[in-house]
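As the next step, I needed to go through one protein, both as residues and as discrete backbone shape codes, included below for the reader:
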Amino acid sequence: MIVAACRAFSLLFLLMLFSLQVHGRVDESVPKTLATSVASSAAATVADISSGAAELSSSTSSSDWSFDAESDSCGPQISIETPACDFLGEGNGYEIRKYPEGEIWVETLVENSTFDSATFTGFYRCFFFISGRNSKSMKIEMTAPVHITPVPTENGYKIGFFVPSRFKSVNDLPQPSDPKVKFYEPKGAVTAVIGPFGGFPTASDYEAKFAELKKALVKDGLKFDESSVVYVGYSSPFEFRNRKQEVHVNIVS
């Protein structure tokens, strides 16, 4: 119980920074003693980030940003930018979207890790890239969703942030200071989506939703690439009602 409480408190603090970043309120007023305390708690269950967790206090605020509210985004409609896509139709409990080429994501692989540890560590790495830990000390606005991709071959997960569409090329972006943070440009895809669903899902919750999606797709005769599954989160950690998560998998022709 104590270990679980430490994990929950540590994750809540990091996700609090996520929420503050969204609203442009992360700055050096975050007490270093609090960050260090959280890091100490996290070390019991998230040892791979404990050595750097004190750097939480160095996050700085981003400027106000805007995006095209009339863009072609589909899926949950929220106050920050989400990827553009086209709604193609729906089946029994799921919908089909088309995501075009041209997206840029910043992502990190956390290998040999549990779901909880990987999401904590991966979010930490990506968050500090957009908070200015990069070659230009550039602050980049928060977007949604956050992607969590299981990587069984590495016994871990990839965590990814969508890069705002105002960046048209990787060359427009600063280079991450952390060598474990990379850019990723996915190919366009037709994607089956289940959700949105609420709560604060665990790995088991996401797996159960994926099983539900697969069952529906098989029933409808649609083929899919099981290795392409992504767990997708849109909601701020301070949204306790009407939270929005999804599971995506690519359809193959």
In short: The two ends are 47 Å apart (CA to CA). The first helix runs from residue 2 to 22. The CA atoms of residues 16 and 243 lie 16 Å apart.
